[in-house]
Design goal:
- It is a single chain.
- With 281 residues, the chain is of the alpha/beta class.
- The chain folds into two domains: 102 residues, no CATH class; 126 residues, no CATH class.
- The chain is 40% helix and 25% strand.
- The protein is built from eight helices and ten strands.
- Strands 4-2-5-10 form a four-stranded mixed β-sheet. A four-stranded mixed β-sheet has the order 6-9-7-8.
- Helix 6 runs parallel beside helix 8.
- The chain is globular.
- The model has no long low-confidence stretch (mean pLDDT 97).
Length: 281
């Protein structure tokens, strides 16, 4: 049994909340550069150039990649041989968010009452926390600030099994076509397939943590990812909705067994600023 003080988690969250909002991950930068080389539209290439320049300037200056610095979404994989000491886990995570957003001068976007826009909590807490118990004696912390513009374009469907593979691709591509430029493409699309109503949404959110360019290890799902990406890019929405062949950088699917009568499908939309960081304690 290994003892971990929750203060280490607070420190990690503080650091990641600031760094993730000012530094675009290498996998995302590489995907944007590759998309720029493939893009057929001159306007779209210019938009991608501006996005890459924005990422470069944000890292140089320490200023946020986007004015929407997101609601803090935290995934913690807790080893079963870890004993947490020093307090409550949610409290520790919120303390890290509070410190990071204050010290980084990041926008606080959380309201306590969803029906009262004047009820801003003032420190971007509470965080949305998901905990999973795994083997081992380590604590893996994933931090992913989620902006409102892309999150608002997300969707969940309870498809019929008869709709199958074609129905999945149709639902995803139609949703992105209708969204247009609102979620700030090019996008990263997290997809949850199977499980139940709530499980599909969680799978879709977790799918966004996978490094870009890493297909599913399961061949049929990897094929579905490629076909869904082709369908989304065929919409012609393009970077920032101005047209082009790059509407999404990746479609990443996580699958789970489901009831024989159900086909749950969730789509979590992430804008081009696919911010995420991971720390292992």
């Amino acid at each position: 049994m290994r003892t971990v003080d929750v203060g280490q988690i607070t420190d990690a969250i503080e650091r990641m909340s600031r760094d993730s909002n000012t530094r675009l991950p290498d996998d995302v930068v590489a995907a944007l550069r590759a998309a720029r080389e493939r893009e057929v539209s001159q306007t779209a290439r210019e938009v991608l150039d501006q996005l890459l320049l924005n990422a470069e300037r944000a890292e140089q200056t320490g200023l946020p990649l986007c004015q929407d610095t997101g609601i803090a979404v935290v995934f913690i994989d807790l080893g079963r041989d870890v004993h947490l000491n020093g307090g409550d886990l949610q409290t520790a995570v919120d303390a890290g968010v509070r410190r990071g957003y204050r010290k980084g001068f990041l926008r606080k976007s959380v309201v306590w009452d969803p029906l009262d826009r004047a009820s801003n909590t003032g420190d971007n807490t509470p965080a949305v926390l998901h905990v999973r118990i795994i083997e081992g004696d380590e604590v893996t912390v994933h931090f992913a600030p989620k902006g409102g513009g892309s999150e608002n374009m997300s969707a969940l469907w309870m498809l019929t099994p008869a709709q199958g593979r074609a129905g999945i691709i149709e639902a995803i591509s139609a949703q992105i076509d209708a969204a247009g430029g609102m979620p700030c493409p090019p996008l990263v699309l997290g997809v949850g397939l199977g499980g139940t109503f709530e499980m599909a949404a969680l799978l879709a959110k977790r799918a966004l943590l996978r490094p870009l360019g890493t297909p599913s290890p399961t061949d049929d799902i990897a094929d579905l990812e490629r076909d869904a990406l082709d369908a989304v890019n065929a919409t012609g929405v393009g970077p920032m909705g101005l047209g082009g062949s790059t509407t999404a950088l990746a479609v990443q699917i996580e699958r789970h067994p489901c009831h024989i009568a159900s086909l749950p499908l969730a789509l979590n939309v992430q804008c081009h600023a696919a911010r995420h960081q991971t720390t292992v304690i």
